Amino acid sequence: MSVTELKERHLAAIETVNDLKNRLKHKRHSLLDTDIAGYARSQGTTPVSFGATDLVCCRTLQGHTGKVYSLDWTSERNRIVSASQDGRLIVWNALTRQKIHAVRLPCAWVMTCAFSPTGQSVACGGLDSVCSILNLNSSTDKDGNLPVSRMLSGHKGYVSSCQYVPDEETHLITGSGDQTCVLWDVTTGLKTSVFGGEFQSGHTADVLSISINGSNSRMFASGSCDSTARLWDTRVASRAVRTFHGHEGDVNAVKFFPDGNRFGTGGDDGTCRLFDIRTGHQLQVYYQQHSDNDIPPVTSIAFSVSGRLLFAGYTNGDCYVWDTLLAKVVLDLGSLQDSHESRISCLGLSADGSALCTGSWDTNLKIWAFGGHRR
């Protein structure tokens, strides 16, 4: 068979695949007779209301000299860890603004950080393609830095995200620009499982975000530059359990819904979406039309404890609070007096749902406290 014939067959196969994708998309839409907002309106659901003191900026954490890229809360809600382009990892006392640790990292280009379940260790990773583990109880060196207690090496691309398996100090999952996710044994520093890569059901572009199911820690979701989110089972590393389509650009953020049966996504197309892991259906799209037709990408998302609120950070500095039932913006933190002056790069909710922390390219973190009600 000639090269020309092979090229023709390849093009024909691509057309066939694209046609099947379109037919599948239309079939999926035909099965969805409504979305969450439509059903909620039919039931007479009233939107969440916010008063002037219901969500206010109570503290600004200043100390980084570069863009803040990632943050995480401890389970007891009194500490926050943040990673910045200044090459430092800072552990903050969220109640007093005090810096508990300010660690200079081996690689300045850090992109992600996460506390272990007990809060005794921190994991971080970035352009060095390594996930470094820091024991916060270790003795500091003469410069006041904490030594790296373990380096998880094996990715062939940057480490974009990391998260400890809930209630397990010895296992964490990373996502990488090499198109894979990896489950690591922190004790040995070895890979336990690899998700994607050479397997056909894996991502076909950089993995940007991961989220482990709080109700079933064997399941986790990942978002990628291939415009899809995928669901994985750590017991079946060879293939994704399900692939979720809908976004028309990079999927920058994924986050499980509190009940574990759904997860949210945020993408470069300026939308947040809610998917059901049992049916594979898209349940809702969260999109705010802008008058100038400029659609800012979504960088990060989080759900309130009940799931009634969805917090979404955008590249233009907006931070919307969505009513997940009615798909309406009930508050924009970016419009408030104490808002960030640049892109919202990361955000996270405290374990008890009493406070939201946002990180920005303006080098600051802000803690927003719920006043009148918490949902």
UniProtKB/TrEMBL annotation:
GO terms for cellular component: plasma membrane. PANTHER family: GUANINE NUCLEOTIDE-BINDING PROTEIN BETA G PROTEIN BETA. This is Putative transcription factor WD40-like family. The keyword Signal does not apply. InterPro entries: G-protein_beta_1-5, WD40/YVTN_repeat-like_dom_sf, WD40_G-protein_beta-like, WD40_PAC1, WD40_repeat_CS, WD40_repeat_dom_sf, WD40_rpt. GO terms for biological process: signal transduction. Pfam families: WD40_Gbeta (PF25391). WD repeats lie at residues 61-102, 152-194, 200-242, 244-285, 337-375. SUPFAM superfamilies: WD40 repeat-like (SSF50978). Belongs to the WD repeat G protein beta family. Keywords: Repeat, Transducer, WD repeat.
